[in-house]
């Protein structure tokens, strides 16, 4: 039946169920299929990974290996399982990803830009920058997405200066940065405290590269300025945004307020955040911490009362405020 119209139709329906997020129905349908091919298995692996069920995705992949002993794995299957490995926290995700990498080396699988990027991303997500760099060099024909995966990994794991160097190398090799590239670049500048460099590239992003800033870019710039204590500049950026700022933008400014103990602005920003999402207690906790660290216990206690009055549910891991390293329920 493999390759028949019936199998193709089954695979299409399986894909539709996965895209709709109905993973239980997709799993049931998969088990009832009279025949399966590599597309069937890959579709289910990818669907479960996209749905956040990364461990389940790996279990499906192991089933595929048992069902297809000795069969060479296709690129799409490897990319799907590497995505699951990248997003599965802990040793299981890393070790499974390394096993896929070992398979690629052992079977001399050509690391295309698509597959190579997935491998770079997997090592990057797990903070293994040595493996990330090696995987990057392993890719013969790199694309912008491959560079983006490397830049994001460096920016997220304390190698901001190296990220900036790699960005220059990327441009020198003729690659045009895109929206994802600039997210990684601005993040690196923010974490390195390279304010002027970050502002320069934010302007160049629009003027030179014709890349339209998204919410995430503005959030990075607000974080960049806020962490440097340039609150007025950060507020000006927010006021000039072509769309209403979301919680990520205000949250970046609130984090800076706490860093510098700017109580007055923290209250104002906190109110805006609470208006956007009153049921998320983490925002109340951050404002409360600003009050307590400023010695304003009365305001801190009042914020706790506001949470109770509003019926705010505490989130595990954010259920207490912290003062000088001590948690206060």
UniProtKB/TrEMBL annotation:
BP term (GO), one: RNA modification
Keyword Repeat: yes
Ranges for the PPR repeats: 6-40, 143-177
InterPro entries: E_motif, PPR_At4g14850-like_plant, PPR_rpt, TPR-like_helical_dom_sf
Gene Ontology MF term list: RNA binding
Keywords noted in UniProt: Repeat, Transit peptide
Keyword Metal-binding appears in the UniProt entry: no
Pfam families, sorted: E_motif, PPR, PPR_2
The name this protein goes by in its record: Pentatricopeptide repeat-containing protein
